[in-house]
C-alpha cells in the first residue's frame, strides 16, 4: 500500500492510521486495504487504456460491495466468474452491461440469471456452453452478447496451476485442430447469440510480455480466418489478465501505461498485417489492481527456536487467510510494524496456527532477533487471492478486510464469528 509511513515512535501507519490502532479496533489477523491506493491503481489502468479500450477488474482476486462501488466510480468494468460474484456486483450497483461473465462450468441457473440481469457479455468456454447459452437466451427471448475463449497454446512462465493457455487444461477451446474455428461457426449459426469477439487469458503473475504477443498474433490470425470464411470482422478482443506484481523486491512489474502501450501496439500491428480493422481491446487485471493495496496484519504468538535448524514465528492466522504459500510456493516478505528494532536480524519462518506443517505464510524472512509475542508483523501484497481464497480450516474465523483512507478505518468485510460458523451447521 502506498500511503505506508513510519510514525515518530517507529510504528507503521497506513492511510494515516497506525497499525496499533488498527489492531486495537479491528483485531488481528486483518487484511488492511489502502483505499486511495486501490482507486489510484484502478484509475491508472483506466487512463492507460483510454476510451478505446475497456478494463474489466477480475473480481476473483478480491470482491466486496465497497470494491464494486470504487470500480464503478473509477470507470472500470467487472469480470465475474460465479453466481456469487454476480450477486455481489449487482447488489452494489454495478450496471449489468459493464459485467462480463466467465467460467468453465457455469450452471444453467447462473447463465439464466446473468442473461436476465443483462450482462454485457458471457465468455463461452466450451462447445456445450455455446449451445446452453443459446438455449437459455432463446427461452428468455434475448440475444446475448458473447465472446469465445480460445486457448492459444502459449506456455506462460508461471506456476503450473495458474498458467491457462497451454492446450492440455480445462479452460477455453483450443485453436489447434480447427476447434476454435468450429466453435465460431456454431456460435454464428445459433440463435440467441451475438458473437462480439474472441477472448484469451494466458495465465497469472506474468512479467514477460512475449506471451501476450504470441497470444495476440494467434487470436488475430483467427479473426482473419473468420473474416475470410464468414465475411465478418468481430469487433472485440480480450487479452485477459495476468500481469504480475511485486511480492518481494526481486519482482519488477510494469506500469499500466507500459502494458497498455505494448498490448495496443501488438494488436494494431497484427491487425494491420492481416488488413483487419483494429478491434476494441479489453483486459482483465485482478492482481495488478488489488494485490499491492493490502497487507495482512498479524500478531506474533509463539516463537520456537530449534537449535541448529530454524526459528519458527507463529502468527494468529495462516493458511486459512493466505493459502498461496502452501499452494503455489509463493514468496512473501514480512516486517515488524508495531515498533522498530536495532536487534540483529534472525532468519525465521513465519507459520500459522493450523494443524498442518505446510501451514507456512513466509518461508524465509529476516526479522529482528528481539521479536516477542504481542509484536505486530505485516505481510505486504496480500490484496489478491488471499481473502478470496480464505477458508475455515480448523474452524478458524476468516479475518476482516479493513479499508483505510485519510486517517479513518472502515470495515468493508467483517470478521467471521463463531455464530457465523454455527449458523451453517444445521445438523
Ligand atoms: N481473466 C481470467 C479469465 C482469469 O481466469 C483470471 C485469473 C483473470 C482475468 C485475472 O488474472 P490476474 O490479473 O489476477 O492475474 N489463485 C491464483 C490466481 C488464479 C488466477 C485465475 N484467473 C493465485 O493466487 O495466484
UniProtKB/TrEMBL annotation:
Asked whether the keyword Lyase is assigned, the reply is yes
Q: Which residues form the Orn/DAP/Arg decarboxylase 2 C-terminal domain?
A: 296-383
Q: Which residues carry the post-translational modification N6-(pyridoxal phosphate)lysine, per the record?
A: 60
Reaction(s) this enzyme catalyzes, per UniProt? meso-2,6-diaminopimelate + H(+) = L-lysine + CO2
Tell me which cofactor or cofactors this protein depends on: pyridoxal 5'-phosphate
Ligand binding (pyridoxal 5'-phosphate): 242, 284-287, 385
- Pathway connected to this protein: Amino-acid biosynthesis; L-lysine biosynthesis via DAP pathway; L-lysine from DL-2,6-diaminopimelate: step 1/1
**Protein EC:** 4.1.1.20
Which Gene3D superfamilies has this protein been placed in?
Alanine racemase, Lyase, Ornithine Decarboxylase, Chain A, domain 1
Whether Lyase counts among this entry's keywords is yes
Which residues are substrate-binding? 287, 324, 328, 356, 385
Listed InterPro entries: Ala_racemase/Decarboxylase_C, DAP_deCOOHase_LysA, De-COase2_C, De-COase2_CS, De-COase2_N, De-COase2_pyr-phos_BS, Orn/DAP/Arg_de-COase, PLP-binding_barrel
Query: What domain of life does the UniProt record list for this protein's source?
Result: Bacteria
Q: Where is the Orn/DAP/Arg decarboxylase 2 N-terminal domain?
A: 36-291
Q: Which UniProt keywords apply?
A: Amino-acid biosynthesis, Decarboxylase, Lyase, Lysine biosynthesis, Pyridoxal phosphate
Q: What does this protein do?
A: Specifically catalyzes the decarboxylation of meso-diaminopimelate (meso-DAP) to L-lysine.
Question: Which family, according to the similarity comment?
Answer: Belongs to the Orn/Lys/Arg decarboxylase class-II family. LysA subfamily.
Q: Which NCBIfam families match?
A: lysA
Q: Which HAMAP family does the entry mention?
A: LysA
Q: How does it assemble?
A: Homodimer.
Its protein name is Diaminopimelate decarboxylase
Amino acid at each position: 500500500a502506498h500511503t505506508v509511513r513510519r510514525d515518530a515512535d517507529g510504528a507503521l501507519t497506513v492511510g494515516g492510521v497506525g497499525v496499533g490502532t488498527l489492531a486495537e479496533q479491528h483485531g488481528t489477523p486483518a487484511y488492511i486495504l489502502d483505499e486511495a491506493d486501490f482507486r489510484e491503481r484502478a484509475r491508472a489502468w483506466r487512463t492507460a487504456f483510454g476510451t478505446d479500450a475497456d478494463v474489466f477488474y477480475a473480481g476473483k482476486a478480491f470482491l466486496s460491495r465497497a470494491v464494486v462501488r470504487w470500480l464503478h466510480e473509477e470507470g472500470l468494468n467487472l469480470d465475474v466468474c460465479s453466481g456469487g460474484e454476480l450477486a455481489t456486483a449487482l447488489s452494489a450497483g454495478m450496471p449489468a452491461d459493464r459485467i462480463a461473465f466467465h467460467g468453465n462450468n457455469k450452471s444453467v441457473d447462473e447463465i439464466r440469471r446473468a442473461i436476465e440481469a443483462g450482462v454485457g457479455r458471457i465468455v463461452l468456454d466450451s462447445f456445450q456452453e455455446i449451445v446452453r447459452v443459446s438455449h437459455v437466451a432463446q427461452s428468455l427471448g434475448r440475444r446475448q452478447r458473447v465472446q469465445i475463449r480460445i486457448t492459444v497454446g502459449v506456455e506462460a512462465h508461471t506456476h503450473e496451476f495458474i498458467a491457462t493457455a497451454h492446450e492440455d487444461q480445462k479452460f477455453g477451446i483450443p485453436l489447434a485442430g480447427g476447434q476454435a474455428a468450429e466453435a465460431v461457426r456454431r456460435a454464428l449459426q445459433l440463435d440467441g447469440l451475438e458473437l462480439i469477439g474472441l477472448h484469451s487469458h494466458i495465465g497469472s503473475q506474468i512479467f514477460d510480455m512475449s506471451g501476450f504477443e504470441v497470444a495476440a498474433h494467434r487470436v488475430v490470425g483467427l479473426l482473419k480466418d473468420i473474416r475470410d470464411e464468414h465475411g465478418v470482422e468481430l469487433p472485440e478482443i480480450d487479452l485477459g489478465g495476468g500481469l504480475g506484481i511485486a511480492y518481494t523486491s526481486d519482482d519488477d512489474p510494469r506500469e499500466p501505461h507500459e502494458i497498455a502501450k505494448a498490448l495496443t501496439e501488438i494488436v494494431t500491428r497484427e491487425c494491420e498485417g492481416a488488413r483487419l480493422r483494429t478491434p476494441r481491446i479489453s483486459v482483465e487485471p485482478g492482481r495488478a489492481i488489488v494485490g499491492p493495496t493490502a497487507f495482512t496484519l498479524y500478531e506474533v504468538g509463539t516463537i520456537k527456536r530449534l537449535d541448529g535448524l530454524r526459528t519458527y514465528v507463529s502468527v494468529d492466522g495462516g493458511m486459512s487467510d493466505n493459502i498461496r504459500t502452501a499452494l503455489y510456493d509463493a514468496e512473501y516478505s514480512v516486517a515488524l510494524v508495531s515498533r522498530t528494532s536495532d536487534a540483529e536480524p534472525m532468519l525465521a519462518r513465519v507459520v500459522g496456527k493450523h494443524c498442518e506443517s505446510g501451514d507456512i505464510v513466509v518461508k524465509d524472512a529476516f526479522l529482528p532477533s528481539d521479536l516477542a509475542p504481542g509484536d505486530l508483523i505485516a505481510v505486504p501484497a496480500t490484496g489478491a487471492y488471499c481473502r478470496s481464497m480464505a477458508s475455515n480450516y480448523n474452524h478458524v474465523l476468516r479475518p476482516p478486510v479493513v479499508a483505510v483512507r485519510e486517517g479513518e478505518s472502515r470495515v468493508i468485510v467483517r470478521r467471521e464469528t463463531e455464530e457465523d460458523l454455527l449458523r451453517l451447521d444445521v445438523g
